[in-house]
Write a sequence for this structure.
């Protein structure tokens, strides 16, 4: 059977003229339109005969449906090339061609230095790490931790250090725990791991040399670092030579270390050396406690001088030492102090019955500002007997320790302010807040406190303009005062406040 609509070789696309059926219909319609002339465009003549009856609609619709079906079949079922390409009567469609730009070669990336510092462990996650925590990255030098890994030969491995060029710098403070005392190692600083029997740990500044030993000798942290000293037992406190609480009040508290910690060349001096001028004593608030600080200027020779700094928490027997540290590392030292937390370190010297009575205070808090203009600061104190001992004559006593802002501080002078106490609904009794020991005659008030019972007292603190600005510890105690012999503390609470000048 001969194909009436032969395909052109290489065809396969209907193109813009459509299918063969569409082209035939279009050619027929164009030929019929060409036969119509101007004479054919006259008005139609009026009908002159009777209108013929129309066929039923369904009979007339059958051919139309057949024609539509044929057209649909031709459009959907046939694919053919043009039989004779003729120009359509209408104007040809305009096709806009968009040129595709040629690909531009991508230049090779220039070599850049890859980051070498790993992210330090987050402070929130590390806070719970506890003693012996060792971060996987961070500070240069030996890993952080309270223990030193033992060598296979049975001896203690040497302390090694690496320079900052071979290890990524520490970019965030890293938590560290030593004997229950927590603090954060400042960015760029590193810990020299202590021996298991050491009562101190050395935190080296970023400028410390990378030699095997942190300081001038195997046991020294000077002048390149800060020593955190923690005494764990009463025997350690009694056997300690330096630092001690007595060194805080000494004019030569640094003198137990016969070294001259000059940065870059520490040495043992051949002659005597002494403090230059009077030591500077201050108090501040660290870990919710009042901390004492003493600072000395020391001259080894006329040319070699250094600054010695000692902080101490006497009740906790925790000390911070920095001798000869460069001034540019003082900010890191202060940040270490700001993160100090001694709540996990029990006081090494336990006083019998000191915790028999719990003391809770409302009205003032740690660091609260107290004006020195004589205005009253209301305070409520509650004493509760948590022991099985019946205290029939307990003295609730409040006093303020001398502080650097007090008149002639350091010479035995007391705070000039007063404390007023109201017993029940009675009148207010006034006492000198600078007296640190209660009277034996009971004039400071006596209360009975059986096991499980409590008593609440109302107080008013007043300071005078003679009481200068500074950190003033206020101590609330429960004492048993016999007629003879020293009294005993059965409960205590100390809150350091900041005296402000008005």
């Amino acid at each position: 059977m001969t194909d009436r609509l032969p395909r052109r070789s290489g065809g396969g696309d209907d193109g813009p003229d459509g299918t063969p059926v569409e082209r035939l219909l279009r050619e027929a319609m164009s030929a019929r339109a060409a036969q119509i002339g101007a004479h054919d465009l006259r008005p139609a003549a009026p009908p002159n005969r009777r209108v013929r009856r129309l066929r039923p609609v369904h009979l007339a619709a059958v051919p139309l449906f057949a024609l539509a079906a044929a057209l649909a079949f031709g459009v959907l079922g046939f694919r053919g090339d043009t039989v004779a390409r003729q120009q359509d009567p209408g104007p040809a469609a305009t096709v806009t061609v968009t040129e595709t730009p040629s690909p531009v070669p991508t230049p090779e990336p220039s070599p850049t230095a890859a980051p070498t510092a790993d992210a330090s462990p987050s402070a929130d996650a590390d806070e719970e790490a506890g003693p012996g925590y060792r971060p996987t990255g961070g500070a240069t030098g030996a890993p952080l931790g309270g223990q030193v890994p033992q060598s296979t030969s049975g001896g203690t491995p040497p302390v090694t250090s690496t320079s900052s060029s071979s290890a990524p710098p520490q970019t965030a403070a890293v938590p560290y725990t030593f004997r229950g005392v927590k603090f954060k190692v400042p960015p760029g600083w590193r810990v020299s791991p202590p021996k298991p029997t050491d009562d101190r740990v050395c935190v080296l500044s970023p400028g410390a040399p990378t030699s095997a030993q942190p300081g001038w000798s195997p046991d020294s942290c000077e002048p390149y670092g800060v020593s955190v000293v923690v005494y764990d037992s009463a025997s350690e406190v009694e056997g300690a030579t330096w630092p001690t609480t007595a060194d805080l009040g000494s004019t030569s508290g640094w003198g137990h270390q016969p070294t001259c910690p000059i940065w870059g060349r520490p040495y043992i001096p051949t002659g005597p050396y002494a403090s230059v001028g009077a030591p500077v004593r201050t108090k501040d608030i660290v870990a919710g406690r009042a901390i004492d600080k003493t600072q000395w200027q020391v001259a080894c020779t006329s040319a070699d001088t250094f600054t010695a700094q000692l902080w101490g928490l006497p009740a906790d027997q925790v000390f911070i030492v920095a001798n000869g540290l460069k001034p540019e590392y003082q900010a890191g030292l202060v940040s270490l102090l700001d993160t100090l937390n001694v709540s996990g370190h029990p006081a090494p010297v336990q006083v019998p019955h000191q915790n028999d009575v719990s003391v809770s205070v409302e009205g003032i808090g740690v660091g609260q500002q107290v004006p020195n203009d004589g205005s009253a600061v209301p305070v409520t104190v509650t004493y509760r007997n948590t022991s099985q001992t019946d205290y029939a004559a307990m003295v609730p006593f409040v006093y303020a320790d001398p502080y650097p802002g007090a008149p002639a501080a350091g010479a035995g002078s007391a705070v000039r302010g007063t404390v007023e106490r109201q017993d029940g609904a009675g009148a207010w009794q006034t006492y000198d807040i600078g007296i640190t020991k209660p009277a034996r005659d009971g004039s400071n008030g006596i209360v009975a406190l059986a096991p499980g019972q409590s008593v609440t007292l109302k107080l008013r603190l007043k300071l005078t303009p003679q009481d200068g600005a500074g950190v003033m510890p206020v101590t609330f105690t429960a004492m048993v005062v016999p007629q003879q012999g020293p009294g005993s503390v059965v409960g205590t609470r100390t809150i350091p406040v900041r005296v402000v000048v008005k």
Notes: The CA atoms of residues 97 and 353 lie 99 Å apart. The helical segments are 20-34, 57-77, 123-126, 234-239, 245-248, 330-338.
